Amino acid sequence: MKLLIVRHGKAYDADPRRWPDDSKRPLTDAGASRFERSVPTIKKLAPKRIRVITSPYVRAMQTAKILCDVAGWEEPEIDERLSAHLGPDDALDLLQSLEIAGNYAIVGHDPTFSYLPGYLIGADRLGATVLKTGAVARIDTGIAPPVPGSGTLVALMQPKILAG
Asked: Can you say whether the dihedral through the CA atoms of 34, 36, 40, 43 is positive or negative?
């Protein structure tokens, strides 16, 4: 499995008056623009064919849509296991349900997405690598099912580098 772990782009700050349901909080215009500029570099990290799976939260779905539109990939799929309130074990459950020879990008949230790369490569789960909004990590698991410690970190790029 070749996996891109993509943290959603910069969203508006949480504001219960504007978004009583935090899952509805969108990307800022600047966040969408910056992420769009990142996609060509992200595409270079990815295999040619890739399946994109996203959290159902608006900011993640918007990020996944930008990723697919700019990269020329098929529309993203939504999976509840990438929701912001869930953790690395839920994301791992999703990954284990996928074809092990496939190529995927998952789009979601912190803190899960800062823990997930370390979790997959066997680093201490508490030693998270911070993925800022719009960052991406590439993990390869070869032909083995993804389990903690089975992955190899190929790349980890923060948005400042991605968007130039």
From this structure: positive
Q: What pLDDT does residue 84 have?
A: 93
- Judged by phi (left if over 0) then psi (alpha if -120 to 50, else beta), residue 147 lies in beta
Going from the first residue of the chain to its last (164 residues), give the mean pLDDT of each consecutive group of 10, the final group possibly shorter. Answer: 96 96 97 97 90 98 98 97 93 94 95 89 69 94 84 92 84
The CA-based diameter of the chain, rounded to the nearest angstrom, is 47
- Nearest-angstrom CA–CA distance, 77 and 93: 16
CA 133 vs CA 6, 98, 110: distances in Å: 9, 25, 9
Beta bridge mates, 138:
4, 155
Task: Give the pLDDT of residue 109.
Answer: 96
Which region, left, alpha or beta, applies to residue 49 given φ > 0 means left and ψ of -120 to 50 means alpha?
beta
